[in-house]
Structures are given as C-alpha cells and as structure tokens.
Amino acid sequence: MKISIETTVKATLQQVWHAWTNPEDIIQWNFAIDTWCCPRAQNQLVVGQGFNYRMEAKDGSMGFDFVGTYTQVELHKVIQYTLGDDREVRVEFLPTEQGVKLVETFETEDENSAEQQRQGWQGILDNFKAHVEKQHS
Length: 137
Fold this sequence. Notes:
Residues 10-133 form the Activator of Hsp90 ATPase homologue 1/2-like C-terminal domain. Helix content is 28%, strand content 44%.
C-alpha cells in the first residue's frame, strides 16, 4: 500500500531543497514528535549512494537508524530512494505561488497501522515545514 502526504513550505525552492538534503538541517527536523530527536545524519545525495539518519527518543528508551539508497535524484525536482527493507519512497518538490509543495509518497510496512505511519511521516513533514519557515521568515 502507498500513502502520500504533503505540505507547502513558504520558502524558495533552493531553501527547501537545501534544508531537505543538508545534514545540519536534517538533525533539526527529522523526528515526528517533540520527545524524539535526530542526533546524527549522514547524506550522500547521489544515485547509488544513500543516507543514514539516527532517530531516537530523547530519554534513550528506543531508537533506530533510518537508512536508504537513492534511486533517482533530479535537482530541485525529485528524490527517490529505497529503504533498507526494500520499500520505495518518492519526494517531489513542486513550486507554487504559495511556496514549495512537497509531496512524499511511501510504501507502508507491516508493523504499524497505515494511519500510524501516515501520522508519523506527516509529523516529520510538519517539523520540516516549521524548521524551514522559521529559518527563512
């Protein structure tokens, strides 16, 4: 099953792309809720290369590495990758009059309900929007 989530960020396409791909920015927004954090992020934005983002509870009770390999990178347009469990994810960057519309489509996993996954991924996307708009307001 595939789920698509979206948001529109009030910033330039270059600012949005940079914040999405730059490790120093990623650690500021890559978590769904305030009790979690992203203490480290590594990113090689090249097809065949990939990323590893550490996501964990601030109290240290749990955490995991979010790891993927890039399968498509079109500057300022599309990033597509395969996660470690072979699920596909596609992120589209669409300029609009209101800002940059981000559409993220991902294949669900079997451990959590589709609604839980939608909420988690949307939470991260909402954090991303808040981070970029705070930086560029």
